Amino acid sequence: MNTTQQDQLNVVTDTGALEQACVELAKGEFIVLDTEFHRESTFWPKLCLIQAATADYDVLIDPLSDDIDLTPFLNLIAEPGRMKVFHAARQDMEIFNRLMGTPPGPVFDSQIAAMACGLGDSISYENLVAQLLKARIDKSSQFTDWTRRPLSAKQLHYARGDVTHLREIYVILKEKLEKLDRMRWIEEETAILTDPATFDTAPENAWKRMKLRNSAKPYLALIAAVSQWREALAQELDKPRSRVLKDDAVQEIAVQKPRNEAAMDRLRAVPKGFSRSTNGRSLIQVINDALDDPDAYAPEYQRRSAPAHPPSGLPELLKVLLKQVSDEAGVATRLIANAADVERIAAESEPDVAAMRGWRREVFGEKAIALKSGKLALAATPDGVKLIEL
After folding, report:
1. How far apart are CA 174 and CA 308, in angstroms?
2. Is the pLDDT assigned to residue 307 strictly greater than 60?
3. What CATH code would you report for 203-297?
4. What CATH number was assigned to the domain covering residues 3-199?
5. In principle, which of 12, 225, 228, 237 could form an S-S bond with 290, CB 3.0–4.6 Å?
6. What is the pLDDT of residues 126-167, one digit of tens each?
7. Angle at 120 between CA 386 and CA 130, to 5 degrees
């Protein structure tokens, strides 16, 4: 077994030690998780460290060690009977989804939970630790190079703090949410994190990340074909999409429809000389194929009709209502609705927005409908804004 103990640091670098660590982790009712990774120059995040903890045990796992197989740990967190606790979980979940083939669940995200408790919009881990634990985190190791070995004691202590503080925060937030009867809110919010579709990187779906600017078949065919070509190449080379071709270049190609090297060279967003490279010639072939048969490449797309203009002043009234109900409920305003939601609620009778579904509708949506229909009024009083049922 290769486990190093250094000032309470438990660093696992081989499979035998990991198996023993998993025995200890399996004793907990929940597992607190965090990762350190590197992604600036790659398509896929490079996992450099895993931090895991229960209420009374914690371990640092080195996935870059030549002597470690993560399978025992991945099997453990795949078990559905144990809560997995993260802070701002999305990137961590993306990593585990790639390793496991599916995201682990169930999930408790302390950033979402803090918003449901009225502790601020998208609160940072550092600020959450300060608010709830009255502790301070030394962030000087946050942006160090986690790919280099050996990791310093300072880096390891910093990484350990990401889970040892979080396990205390989890207990506090869970108790608050249970008292407020809001645990189901968290379940609704974290459902997207346990949906494999959230982390879909299939090249044929890459066009869905692009902003579509018109519905012409040739344009749509090129957006889809070029996006798929870029996604597949970025994954193959393990490079960020933007280093293969920037979004602006994909859009310019879709609009200008260059069929040869000379036409490609005239595009401002495409690097000079790219058209004569192996990848450039491959892309020109993709462009021609898509233009020759746009029906085969263009995705189904229905342009959303222009939004109706809401009555003058209604969006502003709804924003006041949103602020009032969020203050009364003690929940971050942004968790209930954003500005775009408010605009659509003002303009449409039954808009398909999150603010009109689930617990959000109970807290805000029904009142918004009542305000629009004249059954609810807002009144300014010396004690603040009051809601008056009419």
Report:
1. 42
2. no
3. 1.10.150.80
4. 3.30.420.10
5. 225
6. 999 999 999 998 877 778 899 999 999 999 999 999 999 999
7. 135
**Which helix (H) or strand (E) segment is 34 a member of?**
strand 30-38
Q: Does domain 314-389 have CATH number 1.10.150?
A: yes
CA 299 to chain centre: 25
Report yes or no: 11 and 156 within 8 Å, Cβ to Cβ: yes
* pLDDT per residue as tens digits for the range 353-367: 999 999 999 999 999
The pTM of this model reads: 0.89
Q: Residue 52's closest CA among 143, 203, 180, 163?
A: 163
**pLDDT value, residue 2:** 47
Q: What are the Cα distances from residue 56, in Å, to 33, 70, 81, 101, 303?
A: 14, 22, 19, 29, 54
**What tokens appear for 86 in the block?**
């993260």
| Alpha-carbon separation of residue 90 from 34, 96, 104, 282, 320 (angstroms) | 11, 10, 12, 34, 31
